[in-house]
Amino acid sequence: MALLAKHPLPVMLAPPAYLLRPAAALLALALILSGCAAYAAPAPQAPTPTPRRGSAQPSPTPAPADPFLAAQSAALLPAHVGDLARAAEWDRYTIIAALLPGALQLRGTAAVELTNRSTDPYERLYFHLYPNHPDFGGRLAVTSASVDGQPVRSGTEHGDTLIWLALPRPIPPGGSTRVELGFTAQTPRNASRDTFGAFNYEAGLWSLANFYPVLARYFPGTGWDRRPIVSRGDFAVTATALYDVTVDVPAGWELVTTGAQVSSAPVRDGVRRERYVSGPQREFYLGAVQGLDQASVTVDGTRIVSHYQPDDAAAGRRALRVAEQSLLAFNARFGRYPLAELEVIQGAMTQFLGMEYPGVVLIEQELYASNSRGLETTVAHEVAHQWWYSQVGSDAQGEPWLDEGLTSYAQVIYYEWLGQRELALAELDYFRSLYRSSREQRRDVPLATPPAELRGIYVPIAYAKGALFFHALRAQIGEEAFERFLQGYYSAGRYREVAGSDLLRAAEAACSCELDPLFNDWVLTAARVPIP
């Protein structure tokens, strides 16, 4: 997430509960575009990939028996198309939607094909409805729900941010099912000063983060993730999945999404239909822009696009250059980024300096206006999240230090890779000052503390103390072992969800040594450790 929250988000009343209609009702109705003909949901196909404007034509691949999977290769670099051999590990989302900019609405359906990979039978299914959290200031209403074609009972929890579906019959371990959900999402306008700017229309960006119902994670031993969402740190706790998303887009709007475009064609006057695939990703980000300029570059096979306000062209080009340098640095230090595209967008975040999504990072517009080192550091931080969060997943509502600590330390690694040692040391000094201040106020806590218990100290602990832990680890095991740790941790954790114990095992494997005392002092307790 962003490096800093500028001021706390307000407390707002939760929206009222909604009613569900049988799925057959939604499927019988067309989604209506304002002032346009009815929207007919297209059947998913596997067309010849059509790259985005200015991108290189991907190499053709043989059509396997699974059309859904065949299309996914367009989102991956050729060297990583083989990752799709792991497709049985991931659920599948097929989303068909239409944008209604006049009403700031998106209407659609989401079909989720999921498998019970636990050792417990599923009696219910749970989906997060993130936009119903007060911080979003918008709405995500589920209008129909069915499981394997049969309408099901449902209910909500935590102010409509979580919906449960009663299954017609339990899903045994290894069993699969298909869920169909109709939904409508609505964002606020010009609301970034009061709400979460990533779900908002402002400054030329209509950002629709978390616009669809997201299957909750199932934790071994504890079950579905039914925790209330904490307004501290990242909202989403997700597992890797494959997405196939088709959107009807009115003229004058350009989509910016996770993944790669595989087709685009007019469906009627003023509306075109675009289809995107994600590759293995934790979320699917959808945004639409108007009036922004762009510049692009291809780095190690990945096309990076920078979207920016015309008046901030110099900063927009600088953001592109920083993203390019970050990708080169982190490819070298962590391991190759496997996706074909990465987008950097100037937006009105206001509450945050930046926000990461798979294949997309949003950067606060004021950083472009100042065009100072803050822009560089924030872009590098959010690009690093493509490794630590997007590829190697963790529990942002339980152990935020796992991604924020390592992503913050990536700022040090970035400047080291550039040969700017003084700036790398400046980043460390900043983390030291934040953490030292918390200790002096007697507010030190273990790194494993969940965000709900980090009121007022989220950044000093998850970011600063987290980054310093990795610096202490590096000092203890040495440069060669630390290099092995970074690459081994990334290789073993890609597309998976890790916990602190997994990180400890990866570090001990890299150094062939025992690190329990270090881990205990920093992560499990708040021992008065030396500040490295």
Quick recap of the structure?
The chain has about 525 residues and is of the alpha+beta class. It has eleven helices and 26 strands. The protein has helices spanning about 25-30, 65-70, 315-335, 365-370, 375-385, 400-420, 420-440, 460-475, 480-495, 500-510, 515-525; strands spanning about 20, 30, 40, 90-100, 105-115, 120-130, 140-145, 150, 155, 160-170, 175-185, 200, 205-210, 215, 220, 225, 240-250, 255, 260-270, 270-280, 285-290, 295-300, 300-310, 340-345, 355, 360-365.
Q: Determine the CATH topology of the largest domain.
A: Immunoglobulin-like
Low-confidence stretches: 4-63
Strand content: 25-35%
CATH superfamily of the largest domain: tricorn interacting facor f3 domain
- Structural class determined from secondary elements: alpha+beta
As a percent range, the share of helical residues equals 25-40%
**Tally of DSSP β-strands:** 26
Rough shape? globular
Identify the CATH architecture of the largest domain. Sandwich
